[in-house]
Amino acid sequence: MPTIPHTLIAIRALTHDVFELVFRADIAHPPIPWQFSMFSLPSGLRRAYSVAWHEHGELTYIIKRLEGGPGSTEICGLTPGAEVAALPPVGKFQLSEGDVSRCFIGTGTGFAPLWFQIRSALEREDSSPMHFVFGVREARDRFYQSEIWELSEQYPHFSFTQYLSREDIEWCERWYVTDPIGADLARAYKEFYICGSPAMVSDARTQLEMSGVHKERIRFEQY
Ligand SMILES: Cc1cc2nc3c(=O)[nH]c(=O)nc-3n(C[C@H](O)[C@H](O)[C@H](O)COP(=O)(O)OP(=O)(O)OC[C@H]3O[C@@H](n4cnc5c(N)ncnc54)[C@H](O)[C@@H]3O)c2cc1C
């Protein structure tokens, strides 16, 4: 499949090490939630990044610049106007059809595909309950807080809990995103979507299954 030029039109720091990058690209088909783009960076490295949003031919990505990580450092160091080649978004993750209650569990940049899915579902007027459990380490690692809280005010059937694993502050739960998983959560939602580090995804899946959630009700991605 041929690559498509992606022009960086905006980059902003969301935290000390997480960046939002908006590219303009002439892709034939609009991406769907959970799809990712494979970038071929100027150095020759190839790295996958999940699409966090798509609108008017602009693709948004949320990327963590890892210390000593060559690909993430390179892409987060681009400046507006830079052109990078990428394959059109791919990913065969199947979304279930219909209006079903959903719980989204994510950590770090696992936020990107969940955010795309939550926003898309709310904008197409999916009216079933949706809950988003999102975790980072410390208060300074949080991002998109006003965007998420605005959605929860606009859509009463959408709720949000921010977890911090290493800091105690008002409005946030102190512990891991797996903490609320139990029989009550298992009963409250029909489907569970998980994205984040392999350790978190594995723990969340195990706890959901132990709480009575059948495998088929759980969809996940880890990176
Ligand atoms: C389908 C898919 C979608 C992805 N979507 C995103 C996304 O939306 N945003 C994003 O930031 N990354 C995403 N990634 C991860 C991304 O592709 C790179 O692996 C990441 O940017 C690290 O590349 P690097 O070259 O900087 O570091 P590497 O040299 O690849 O890794 C450096 C070190 O960091 C570890 N590491 C790799 N990824 C992470 C991480 N996310 N957090 C902590 N440690 C890590 C590695 O195990 C290694 O030890 C995705 C990966 C896949 C497979």
Could you walk me through the main structural features you see in this protein, from its secondary elements to its overall organization?
- It contains 5 helices and 13 strands.
- The mean pLDDT is 94.
- It has 2 domains: 4-86, Elongation Factor Tu (Ef-tu), domain 3, CATH 2.40.30.10; 102-222, Rossmann fold (3-Layer(aba) Sandwich).
- The protein has 223 residues and is of the alpha/beta class.
- 22% of the residues lie in helices and 34% in strands.
- The two termini are 24 Å apart.
- The strands form 2 sheets. The chain has a 7-stranded antiparallel beta sheet.
The CATH class of the largest domain is Alpha Beta
Uncertain regions: pLDDT < 50 for 5+ in a row? Answer: none
Roughly how many Å apart are the termini?
24 Å
Count the E strands. 13
| Largest sheet strand order | 4-3-7-1-2-6-5
Sheet/helix structural class: alpha/beta
Going by CATH, the homologous superfamily of the largest domain would be Nucleotide-binding domain of ferredoxin-NADP reductase (FNR) module
Structure annotation, total helices: 5
Strand content: 25-35%
Number of domains: 2
CATH topology of the largest domain: Rossmann fold
- Percent helix range: 10-25%
What's the average pLDDT? 94
Shape: globular
**Which ligands does the model contain, each kind named once?**
flavin-adenine dinucleotide
SSE ordering: EEEEEEHEEHEHEEHEHE
Largest beta sheet, briefly? 7 strands, antiparallel
List its traits:
223 residues, alpha/beta, Rossmann fold, 2 domains, seven-stranded antiparallel beta sheet, 5 helices, 13 strands, binds flavin-adenine dinucleotide
